[in-house]
Design a protein that fits this description.
The structure is a homodimer. By secondary structure, chain A is α/β, with parallel strands linked by helices. Chain A is built from 16 helices and 14 strands. Helices cover about 45% and strands about 15% of the residues of chain A. Chains A, B: It catalyses: L-histidinol + 2 NAD(+) + H2O = L-histidine + 2 NADH + 3 H(+).
């Protein structure tokens, strides 16, 4: 049974607050183990990576086989059926088109004081994408991480993907090829993150590491942050659906289940202004759960973290949504645009009846790497910006320095930074000669 | 004596690599103490903050005096002289004008498949800026943090600034007022970061925390990251000056010293294609060090971490600069634009002879909060983007879903995410009826 809440009930505020702060993830403390792995890789490079891969992935590598060869990649890609390949190509094309629009513009101008100012964007030189092995090895995530990097203009783009016992998902290699990845390494875990951050004999270090992973990967990313850039540490997936009565309960049930099936820690919430509709959706979820392949996972998620919240009106729905700041927000109402204007904190919004969240996971175009755990209050999904950095530019003329330099000198003096002031003064004195 | 390197020397590569990896910061391990302070503040709110402020800042607060009153701020601002005030106003106006140009645009379009796509930017609801007390209490940093937040449209903007023994820098309060800060709290250290992140009886929690601080503040920011957004953890300041022989050695010496005087861990490097000029700058540094107020600090920085690197030509200078990825890069050469095009990794570039770095610290317009410790390879200075987040938007029509839905269904199947596929299929089936 999911949580049923009604905003008219006495205990609502306490129940909603409890839902908001509910701890869904019990991350094991692997930090000490990860620190040791990183130290090993820094000290012994390829030897350590090979040894750790033998231990954790039961796979025997040599420096020559750490990366897939071109022939190996071609052989795996040949196993991909035409329909899967076409679907990946359609997705890649749409993701590329969306992200190309995100490229920010450089700027340069001269202001009233005669100062030339501006900024310039540039790509990171090299990026590494982590792709989990096994069940969570999603080709769609390869596209979502690699394409923004390529659009940004990253020079060298590599993937680290463990292949336990040598097993690899051909679709992952096909996605890597479609996205233009340069090299795919058969390594995973904290040892892969360490190798990407610090380099080894065969693996050149990168400047930025993105992509999801297990507790070891997350802890390793936290530890190498600063040495390299990282993306967010993603938590379990979430969806909030705001729906009025004019919806097919079965559609909404499937949308809720499409998050629940990811993970027992996923959270699916329906907010509706119609209690009968809420009950109908819950009933539809139960019916679908009977036949769903991942019913054990989806059922546990829905039972433990799922919720149906009945509100007085859509304004109240928007207010609750803003407190939740959901990763995915589906607006299945008559005027989704009006409601979108009120729901200000969300990673991605899906508007109207014909936009199931799953479209955004694969082919919509926007990125599916999105802020979880209420972090949409202050952060954004993955984008080309994650693979770019900005350099600010300033160029004074003698006239511009004469106009604004004395103020800089004054402030430097007030902060007791004498050399700062003198570096301006020395130049002003030349002008006054 | 700073390090003298020449790229023609045999041992150059090793010496340069050593300079690059030189550890300049010995951060004390205060993590356990910080964890305890955060737990205290979460458990006991204002009481804990008041107690910790008594202990660390020798200041007796009550819930009513945790924040400065309007009258107190007005009284402090009245102490600021006209010249200081005018300088702050000039700086604030220029910083605001620069950052207003950074505001990113929303986008919305309909693509060939009939899908409506786009994104929307919005400000974080509340931000907290940390301002150190004592010597490092820089009014310029108040402007550099607060103005981008206000330009971004942050709803509630507060400052936490410790006032040891009750002492406050009137210029800090004046800068806060000019920047439009709503509230200034008299608290500091890890307890201030905890209060901003989790809230207390009198301090409402914020969504984003920025600003520099000591080891306790840095450790606390790391710990609350995820609960709130944070800016980068800044390391000691750095400057790289690339200068040819046609420069006044004294100007360049002052530019180098304006970083060195910040901190004994600061690093100032000159790269020049003329060995005689390099020696002349080093001699000028020594002369200036005799009279500089902060000569103990600046002298230690220059002796331990300063460097003069002689290269064959400016192309080599650019290549070394890209390996250093400096926070501040000054290009004092005949054609600074051409050299800027080659120096791709830098937080901020100062072009030509008339742009001492100190201009950028105060009145240039660009932000002075910049990536240190080689992180300009993958990150950018503070900007309005740090106070904004992006929500992606997607809206399918039945026709658009018919066009791209089958590919999503196919990919969901290949990833064994059945409910994802069904959520699309249920809608496609309706269309096909």
């Amino acid at each position: 049974m999911p949580h049923f809440l009604n905003s008219c009930d006495d205990g609502f505020e306490a129940a909603f607050a409890a839902l908001l702060t509910m701890k869904r993830e019990d991350a094991p403390d692997v930090d000490a183990a990860v620190a040791a792995i990183i130290a090993e890789v820094r000290a012994r490079g390829d030897d350590a990576v090979i040894e750790l891969t033998r231990r954790f992935d039961r796979l025997e590598l040599t420096p020559a086989t750490i990366a897939f060869s071109e022939a190996e990649i071609a052989a795996e890609c040949a196993k991909v059926g035409a329909e899967d390949r076409a679907a990946l190509e359609l997705a890649a094309g749409r993701i590329r088109a969306y992200h190309e629009r995100q490229m920010p513009a450089d700027a340069r101008w001269t202001d009233a004081a005669g100062a030339e100012l501006g900024w310039r964007w540039g790509p990171v030189s090299a990026a590494g994408l982590y792709v989990p092995g096994g069940l969570a090895s999603y080709p769609s995530s390869v596209l979502m991480n690699a394409i923004p990097a390529r659009v940004a203009g990253v020079g060298r783009l590599v993937i680290a993907c463990p292949t336990p016992g040598g097993a690899v998902n051909p679709l992952v290699l096909m996605a890597a090829r479609l996205a233009g990845v340069d090299t795919v390494y058969r390594i995973g875990g904290a040892q892969a993150i360490a190798a990407l951050a610090y380099g080894t004999g065969t693996i050149a270090p990168v400047d930025k590491i993105t992509g999801p992973g297990n507790a070891y990967v997350a802890a390793a990313k936290r530890r190498v942050f600063g040495r390299v850039g990282i993306d967010m540490i993603a938590g379990p997936s979430e969806i909030l659906v705001i729906a009025d009565r004019d919806n097919d309960p079965d559609w909404i049930a499937l949308d809720l289940l499409s998050q629940a099936e990811h993970d027992e820690s996923a959270q699916s919430i329906l907010v509706t202004d119609d209690a009968d509709f809420g009950r109908a959706v819950a009933a539809a979820v139960d019916r679908r759960l009977e036949t769903l392949e991942r019913r054990a996972i989806a059922g546990a998620s829905w039972r433990d973290y799922g919720a149906v919240i009945v509100v007085r009106d859509l304004a109240e729905a928007a207010a609750l949504s803003n407190r939740i700041a959901p990763e995915h927000l589906e607006l299945c109402v008559a005027d989704p645009e009006a409601l979108a204007a009120e729901t200000v904190h969300a990673g991605a919004i899906f508007l109207g009846h014909w936009t199931p969240e799953a479209i955004g996971d694969y082919v919509g175009g926007p990125n599916h790497v999105l802020p979880t755990a209420r972090s949409a209050r202050f952060s954004s999904g993955l984008s080309v910006m994650d693979f770019l950095k900005r350099t600010t530019l300033a160029k004074m003329t003698p006239q511009a320095l004469a106009a604004i330099g004395p103020a800089a000198e004054r402030l430097a003096t007030s902060e007791s930074l004498q050399a700062h002031g003198l570096s301006v003064r020395a130049r002003l004195d030349r002008l006054n000669r």
